Amino acid sequence: MRKKVVEATVRALQRAETSLPDWVLQRIEEAAAKESHPLARHHLQFMLENVKIAGERGLPLCQDTGLTIFHVQMGRDLSLDFSLSEAIAEGVRIATREIPLRPNAVHPLTRKNSGDNTGPGMPDIILDYVDGRGLSLTAFPKGAGSENMSLVGMLNPADDPFDFIFRTVAERAANACPPLFLGIGLGGSFDLAARLAKRALLNMPGESLEELQLLERINSLGIGPMGLGGDTTALGIKIEKAFCHTASLPVAINFQCWANRCEKVVIQ
Amino acid sequence: MTEYHLQTPLSGKDVEKLVAGDVVFLSGPLFTARDKAHALIRRTGCPVSLQGAVLYHCGPLIKDDRVLSAGPTTSGRMARYTDDILLLGVRAIIGKGGLPGEPFRDKAVYLAYPGGCGAAAAQQLRVLGVHLPELGMAESLWEFEARDFGPMIVAVDTHGKDLYQEVRRSAQKQEMD
Prior knowledge:
The complex is a heterodimer of chains A (268) and B (177). Chain A has 8 helices and 8 strands. Chain A has helices at residues 2-18, 22-34, 38-57, 84-98, 144-147, 161-172, 190-203, 209-219; strands at residues 69-75, 124-130, 135-139, 151-155, 180-187, 234-242, 249-256, 263-267. In chain A, helix 2 runs antiparallel to helix 3 (38-57). The N and C termini of chain A lie close together (9 Å). Chain B has helices at 12-16, 35-44, 82-87, 118-122, 163-176, and strands at 3-7, 23-32, 54-56, 61-63, 66-69, 92-95, 109-112, 125-131, 141-156. Chain B is α/β, with parallel strands linked by helices and 177 residues long. The radius of gyration of chain B is 15 Å and the shape is globular. Chain B has a 5-stranded mixed barrel with strand order 2-3-6-7-9. In chain B, strands 4-5 form a two-stranded antiparallel ribbon. In chain B, strand 4 and strand 5 (66-69) form a beta hairpin.
């Protein structure tokens, strides 16, 4: 079983780094067809061309192969006689050598690079228990360009969270490789809001009225692909909510670039 | 919007004719540099001459001296070094997200390469050498040979025009409405 987890980690990363999920490609294609700015259309088409080259040649589509983040869904009736996190870390080390991935993980102060994308806290594993005996693993490599623009705001309950999200995106979108996917965490506590925002990205797509209205409002800004103007600033927004303290209104915005890489592998 | 195919290193004349919105393809040598290389250059000087050079904000993915993926990184992190870098004679900075435009006036241009397009970029680049290898793969100063590297958009020109700034202003106006 441990071997299967290691192999699944390598396989999930391999596919995540060299291709995009069909629904992501479809959103970029639809945006390219609708986009009225020639330069923006050109950018969207070049992005699609890049995904094609990456797929054909087995190359990471972006040189920022990201921090290694995984979502694991584990059956409640399954018991493992090994450390899941160590098995996934071993898969990350193999993937770093074999795909290969750029070594990105460094100590936060000395900035010393571990060389293999692992270290204390890395890979980051988000674990959920589900019914049954199954085990699945989703690789969600996260690049720094978009992650660096992310933000948690501890708002006054009298504030409008949608205005806060709108203003934050308007100010930061250009540096996050738009068109963007936005994961929003609404409520909870300081750290729960951030985790909800990450989960929102994992759970995309969002289709509720408030999600679609916010998406339309953001696209009205005209920031466009790469911040150089256009109709397509964001391709999707997902909001995850939790109850919060009566005195609080935490809002987290997790930016995701257009290269929304994600691959799920079910382990038999 | 004019399309240019230029040879590096670049002269003052080469960059003077470029106007924000133009499309540029570059061939010839260029250097990558990001956070650590910039800090080191400020402290101890640059190990190579940057006279007329093109500096690419990029931390490439390389194996056995083959460029596998090499799109641009966010230039904003290097904004504090723009004056130093341009003083060394750099004529063009390539990146994504833009840089404050004022230091570029009468000196150099900022070229935007589509972000996230590392696999496409890799097809247009090969390794000539590496400087400051002790900084690691992403942070080293790589010397690449570019072949029709692009399309890049002139986002900041030498005449004070800044496309990002224009988009930001128009977005702010939209925000107020």
